[in-house]
Amino acid sequence: MENLSFHDGNIFNLLHSRSTEPSHDVDQRMQLHSSLVRRLSQEQELEGHQGCVNAISWNSTGSLLVSGSDDLRVNIWDYSSRKLVHSVESGHTANIFCTKFVPETSDELVVSGAGDAEVRLFNLAGLRGRADDDNALTPSAMYQCHTRRVKKLAVEPGNPNVVWSASEDGTLRQHDFRESTSCPPAGSAHQDCRSVLLDLRSGAKRALADPPKQTLSLKSCDISVTRPHLLLVGGSDAFARLYDRRMLPPLTSCRKRMPPPPCVNYFCPMHLSERGRTNLHLTHVTFSPNGEEVLLSYSGEHVYLMNVNNGVGTMQYTPGDVANFFSLSNILHDVESTPQVSTTQNGFHRNGNAAMLKKCTELVELAKSSLEEGTDIFYAIEAANEVLDAHSNDIESALRHECLCTRAALLLKRKWKNDAHMAARDCQNARRIDASSFKAHYYMSEALQQLGKCKEALDFATAAQQLKPSDADIVAKVESIKRDLQAAGAEKKEEPEGGTGRVLSLSDILYRSEANSDSSHDMSRSEGDQSDYDEELEVDIQTSMSDDEGGDPDSNAMRGSLNLRIHRVSDDNKPIENSGDNGSSGTASSSQNDRTSYQPEGAIDMKRRYIGHCNIGTDIKQASFLGQRGEYIACGSDDGRWFIWEKQTGRLMKVLVGDEAVVNCIQCHPFDSVVATSGIDNTIKMWSPIASVPSIVAGGSAGPATANVVEAMESNQQKLSRNRENPLSVELLQRFRMQEFAEGNFHPFECTQS
């Protein structure tokens, strides 16, 4: 909402304070002030790559930018001139996914990781005095011990000797340049590289209550700048993991598969912790600049913010909490039976700012008006966010209760992905304020009905009816839920005997396949390239890509029919039986025993959600903190835009067109008001606050965007919903592309489904 104020102060007052009393804090606040964010516009395109730019990273001073691309080159750019300084022929044989400057090396050492499973170190000093077209550079170090694609690299500030690499083979490795500068490929006769810091080849979880069993294909990792012993990783399940490197066991060899080490914390929004879908995974994890928060970006999902430390504002939950969350009896032990009465005046605490308190009341009324009229739902939700996320501690509980119920109703009307889950959270929080709230029970029943939890929905609807027996809406709601329950019961009766009636999806089969493929990641790359799994999948596909002008221009989904023949074969082409880990029987009873003996850990829940973008097409899509204070959140999108939100409230600040297809990478300059982005295009875009007027929407080189922001976000939500209804389209394509790469038949288009 354009008329809402911002929370970073008046920029003129900041400028005045800096002139009278210079301070580092003011400089940090000035770097990406709201008035500058709203003026961001494309300043320049950096040309020099011939393929998708999958990785960009600044050096510590911001004087240089390094990039990696599908063209297999590592490029170095000068920030002040915006010119290409070096273009290194890396020697990688597959797309480069990650690049970094090695700290404290005068920016002469850069490291890269790629789809060929290799990590390479280059000394740029070797290019001095050469001709411009003489770009081949022998690596100073080359590590070939991974067996799958290297998706992310991490370095420790102040440490010039070590780099960490995260790979889809389920391991995070520590490479110390002082100990070795090379290691032979995994599985070779002389390969005994003891570099495995995290062995997560049996570390993935389908749900919080499940024991880790499958391979966690790592997609991202990060090291805290303020506490470098903290290591954050994310991969092919819903859970980011925080490790303390001081508590990890010694480095091991990949030849011996180790059980996953205990982590300090799991991070996952509660509503994603029990979904059990194998296509739900993280594409990026990162620490905030101060190390107190983490940001998680999900494929087919949104971006979520969470606290690192347990404390005020941090909610840690267990599998039991997940199971009980939708129960009518949940939280009744700690809710208030009546609205809280405190030393307040006109609905606000007396020590509050009068102007701010008045604004909160107006915003709640605006949200209620939009709910009644059914218009401007998105902006009404932002108004409620402003009250609840920015001023919740300043308002009296009665107004907070009203705002929670109003926001829940607005979310249920909008129906974007997971809005019903967010509405349920608001309803439970409203019940904590007033256990006899009719609105909280009514909207909770609506949320549960949208989520397909009809039995629980009927409990809340019946409770609401007891509170207001004559209310026509709740009478109709009770009858509606009863009809849904009857329909569900009728469907259950029609199921064939001896079965659940549920057809196993390819996702389920692939997941079970990974559960029984212990040896696949331990074999040599020459053996492993025959298949990603120790079983064979035969798949017949009849499909077509539609180029008709009348087709949906925003849809990248495969169209047509899909016929599958899937079976497992042994070496002699005879069917083989399922076997559990370490050769044990994979029976239902053994699986049940595993679950019974496993003591599940808790997880830290979300504290904020950022929505509007679409992330289903690539698994290298970043979500980043902007500025030294990290007051803004940015993420790329499959529609070629990138989005900026205010961290505190989730308010959408800016939408910019940054690519012809997909924006993947977003990196803010360490000190200046400049952001670099890249994606499917073969250029890097530089953004700075040069627009003549502030606005939410801005375009790229083509000029100001005219498309409605809400319409663009609605389109993105439709794509997410299609991905939810047919979650295998991207996953299936990824599997076949990985097989093509293994056979040497695939290279240049990797970044679109990386």
From TrEMBL:
Pfam families assigned: WD40
Amino acid composition bias (Basic and acidic residues), ranges on this chain: 519-528
InterPro entries: DCAF8, TPR-like_helical_dom_sf, WD40/YVTN_repeat-like_dom_sf, WD40_repeat_dom_sf, WD40_rpt
Biased composition (Polar residues): 579-598
Keywords (A to Z) from UniProt: Repeat, WD repeat
Region feature Disordered, mapped onto this chain: 514-533, 568-598
WD repeat start-end pairs: 46-87, 656-688
Protein's name according to its UniProt entry: Anaphase-promoting complex subunit 4 WD40 domain-containing protein
Taxonomy of the source species: Eukaryota, Viridiplantae, Streptophyta, Embryophyta, Tracheophyta
